[in-house]
Amino acid sequence: MSAVEAAAGKAQAMVRDSVKTVIAASMVGTAIEFYDFYAYGTAAANYFPKVFFGDTTNPTVALLASLLTFAIAFIARPLGSLVFGHFGDRMGRKTTLVVSLLTMGIATFLIGCLPTYSQWGIVAVAALCLCRFVQGIGLGGEWSGAALVATENAPEDKRALYGSFPELGAPIGFFLSNGTYFLLETFNDDDAMLAWGWRVPFLLSAVLVIVGLVVRVQMEETPIFRMAQEQKKVVKSPLTEVFKKSWKEVMQATFLVAVTYTLFYTLATWSLAWGTKSVEDGGGNLGFTNREYLLMLMIAVCVFAAFIIISCVNADRFGRRRVITISSVLLVVFALLFPYLLDSGVVGQRNFAATLLFLCIGFALMGTAFGPIGAFLPELFDANVRYSGSGIGYNLAAIVGAAFVPTIATWLSHHWGVHSVGLYLGVMAVCCLISVITCKETKDVDFTK
């Protein structure tokens, strides 16, 4: 092949989707991911203890059992990342993302169709766990593929900004899920929510999945993957390559992300139960209703979205390491101080100002830590193993940082008070800080290699 033909082939390979298509294709999957997971987290905290675990006489035990089912999808996610990562690096980002979205969407919809414990007994619980497991498999291939669609279509000096597109799906999905529950609880009483209302968010997820499928079927393969195909750099066994050459980067990626998961589910799932339940039911006796707390969460998630964009702009300007290092240090400080804002003995009951301050500061730090991850993780790996490497790291973080967060935080707070939850978050922040310090700055890496 002549030099002219090679140059023409490279130019053709580097043709990018429009910015609108990149935004839609990368953002929609993460939006559905967080919508699905937070819909489940809200249901697990408020409804599933009675719908699926109503046979127990101890409300705290029922809550803990319900929250344990929350962990199942996180355990399944690394398996999903192995499967979808392999095909994403072998066959391309587009096809793999379509299949992962469909897998995730079907499982979520089926959760909304399940019989309750009073109808099917233990079989209903088993069916719930199976759907949750399949949901996790689909989600295992989602984030890394979405991040690659964004960053592999980005100009070199705007990879973190483009990487914010899938990250912004998190507050969007969170807002949609919260908004759905808020409206349902506004127009229905507790009996209606337990009878059928909890199903609605899961059934409505089908609409998001259909929109996502339409967008992703129409998009092109990413230019960097097309270039890897042109240059015969696609490897037969991406997973072998990752664990052989990039195991250190997988571990770094895991602990870079883990603290963001711990923080998110501390803010969104554990604190919801803590703020709305009595001490006898595993809460903190803060005296808020579900609707009041959901409204505060919806306000705080807007702060989350704003700080994702701010942090990504700064990451493109000053580097990924600097932004995440600062966020990790601030998270340690936050972890030591926030329990005072959620201690009813200190702030009293129904203290909206203290609770909203806790949520807004927490989500600001969440956005700062989470935003640059969309570019930082893919940049740690070569193009021919990028889907597998970033996906495995991200989904191992789901086990380390998220799978048992609501359960552990509920158990800790029930036995040793809210300050023990702060120490738990602080340990995770220190792990992130150690990880980011050991990483090299990736802002100026050659992303085509």
Automatic annotation (TrEMBL):
Transmembrane residue ranges: 21-41, 61-84, 96-117, 196-217, 253-273, 293-311, 323-342, 354-380, 392-412, 418-439
GO MF terms held by the record: symporter activity
Keywords: Cell membrane, Membrane, Symport, Transmembrane, Transmembrane helix, Transport
Superkingdom field: Bacteria
CDD domains attached to this UniProt entry: MFS_ShiA_like
Major facilitator superfamily (MFS) profile domain segment(s): 22-443
GO cellular component terms given for this protein: plasma membrane
UniProt keyword Transport, yes or no: yes
Matching InterPro entries: MFS_dom, MFS_sugar_transport-like, MFS_trans_sf
UniProt main location, coarse: membrane
Compartments in which it is found: Cell membrane
Its membrane topology: Multi-pass membrane protein
Pfam family, one: Sugar_tr
Family: Belongs to the major facilitator superfamily. Metabolite:H+ Symporter (MHS) family (TC 2.A.1.6) family.
The protein's role, per its UniProt record: May be a proton symporter involved in the uptake of osmolytes such as proline and glycine betaine.
Name under which the protein is recorded: Putative proline/betaine transporter
